[in-house]
Each structure stands twice: as C-alpha cells, then as structure tokens.
Amino acid sequence: MLFSVIVPTCNRNDLLSKCLDRLVQTVQTIKDDYEIIVTDDSKSSEAKALVEEKYPSVKWVGGPRKGPASNRNYGASLAKAPWLVFIDDDCIPEKEILAEYKNAIALYPESRAFEGTIIPDDWDKLKEDMTECPINTTGGYFWSANICVNANLYQEIGGFDQNFLIAAQEDQDIYVRLSKLTKIIFLKESIVVHPVRKIALGKKINQIPIATKNWFIYETKHNAQSVKRTFRMAGSFVVQFSKGVVKSLLKGKLKTAVYQFFLLFVGIPVYLNLSIKNNWNG
C-alpha cells in the first residue's frame, strides 16, 4: 500500500459524493494498493449512509468534531500507508493526481512532502463581490485541499496544530514546520478543482474576532514578539486594509469594501487587545 487518501468532511454530502466519484476513478490509475478514509465531523449519519451505500471500498469514520485540523489528524491516525494524501471534500481531483504524486516520490526521494495545484471551478465568478477560493498555481501555499506528506514525518511533527480555531493558519503553520525538515516540491500536474464560494457579509464580519485570534496564534508561535513588532504589524494592517477598501470600491465590490472596513476598525483593535493581554515586552 502506497497512499492513504484522507477526505475530511462536515455536512457537505452532495460535494463529498462528487469528490468520491472522481477519487474512486483516480485510484484506478495507480497499481499500488491504496485506501480512502472519509473522516466525518457532521452530527448526522447521512455521510456514513452515503459512503456505505455508494462507495463500499471507502472507509468511513466519525470525526472528533473539534475542527478541521483535528479531523485531518484523526484520519491520519487511522492510516496504514507510508504516504498521506489530503483532499478536501468539496474538491474534484483530476484523474492523474495520485499517479503524479507517485512519480514525484520516485523522482524526488529526498523530499517527504508535496503540494499540488488548486484551481477554481469558475475564474469569472472570482471577480464577483464576496467570493473566495484557495488557489495554488505556483506552490508555496501548502493548502491542505491538495497535499501529500510522508506519514512518519507527519507523525513526527504532530500533524496539524489543533489549537487553531478555524481553517486557514493551520495550513501555513504545518508548511513552516515541514519546511524545516524537508524540501517541499510543488507538482503542477497534480490538480484539484475547488469551488468558488460566495460568502455572506454578516458571517464574514462576525468571524473577524475569531479569525484575528487564529492569525494571532500563528504569529506568536512563529515570530518573537515585542511592543515594537506589535505596532509595526498594526501599522502594516492599517495600510493593507485601507488600500483594500479603496481597491474594492474602485472595482464595484461594495460588500468586500465594507468587510475590509470592519477589518480595519474591528480586527486591528482585537489584535492590539490580544497583544496587550499577552504582556509583550519591548
């Protein structure tokens, strides 16, 4: 067995079905044994019924319901293969994705981690207001929607950091930690297609405090802190978010401009408050 393909899911059964349809075809392109593990954080039993009825070769397990990092780690803890491939439940993998990873493992024996291409399902939709999609066409992002990691190395570093509150910085964090131990190779032809999502403005605004804390966890973990750094970072955010407001208005993205306005006047104070509470010394 070469690959354990881990698909974390939570209440997205229609998308999960599309992902598994393609993934079951994909694994047939490699001769080695493989396994597909769906680790399910949803409270209902619908995903379990779906997998057991339509995908008998796929292993379904109930997740720990402690967030995406924990869900991925749980799937990895059950894996039997020497290489872990993570694909998100809303992504459609190209048929050659595992063949590309297999070839790369042979071609780059010194590397123990790889990242693949992530492209949106609709480039034009990305131009609309309040739309988002993780894109990786050049490498250096290590978005967990499409990565491959040596299982021993993954366990050695403790997998994804479960202290992160929501999805985002756990990908950046594991990339930094892996980069210290192995060269990470980007595989252009190892591709998944990710849906472009339109996000409700109210939801994004409500998430600003927790998203700021999430980023703060990453920042304090990887950078030495001081009063000087705190205000330098706050200043850079003021510039960044202010420019974002102007650029969004010029593009006619009113809701995005409103969100960036709230980042400016809510996110930065939350960041400064977190810094003060943590007693950073100059």
Summary of the model, kept short:
The chain is α/β, with parallel strands linked by helices. It has helices spanning 13-26, 46-54, 68-77, 97-107, 151-156, 169-179, 201-206, 208-222, 227-250, 254-277, and strands spanning 3-9, 34-40, 58-62, 83-87, 92-93, 113-120, 131-132, 146-150, 184-194, 197-198.
Plain-language structure description:
Helix 8 packs across helix 10. The chain is globular and about 55 Å long. It has 10 helices and 10 strands. The chain has helices at residues 13-26, 46-54, 68-77, 97-107, 151-156, 169-179, 201-206, 208-222, 227-250, 254-277, and strands at residues 3-9, 34-40, 58-62, 83-87, 92-93, 113-120, 131-132, 146-150, 184-194, 197-198. The longest helix is centred in the last third of the chain and has 24 residues, at 227-250. With 282 residues, the protein is an alpha/beta fold. Strand 2 (34-40), helix 2 (46-54) and strand 3 form a beta-alpha-beta unit. The chain has 2 domains: 3-198, Alpha-Beta Complex (Spore Coat Polysaccharide Biosynthesis Protein SpsA, Chain A), CATH 3.90.550; 201-277. It is 46% helix and 19% strand. The strands form 2 sheets. An 8-stranded mixed β-sheet has the order 3-2-1-4-8-6-9-5, with helices on both faces.
The CATH homologous superfamily of the largest domain is termed Spore Coat Polysaccharide Biosynthesis Protein SpsA, Chain A
**Residues in helix, %:** 40-55%
Q: Going across the biggest sheet, name each strand in turn.
A: 3-2-1-4-8-6-9-5
Strand count, sense and closure of the main sheet?
A: 8 strands, mixed
CATH topology call of the largest domain: Spore Coat Polysaccharide Biosynthesis Protein SpsA, Chain A
Which sequence of SSEs, written as H and E, runs from N to C? EHEHEHEEHEEEHHEEHHHH
Strand content: 15-25%
Described by the principal axes of the CA atoms, the overall outline is globular
- What's the CATH C level of the largest domain? Alpha Beta
Distance between the termini: 53 Å
Total count of domains? 2
- Report the mean per-residue pLDDT as an integer: 95
Stretches with pLDDT under 50, minimum 5 residues: none
Q: Can you count the helices?
A: 10
What would CATH call the architecture of the largest domain?
A: Alpha-Beta Complex
E-strand count: 10
Which class of secondary structure composition applies to the elements?
alpha/beta
The radius of gyration over CA amounts to 20 Å
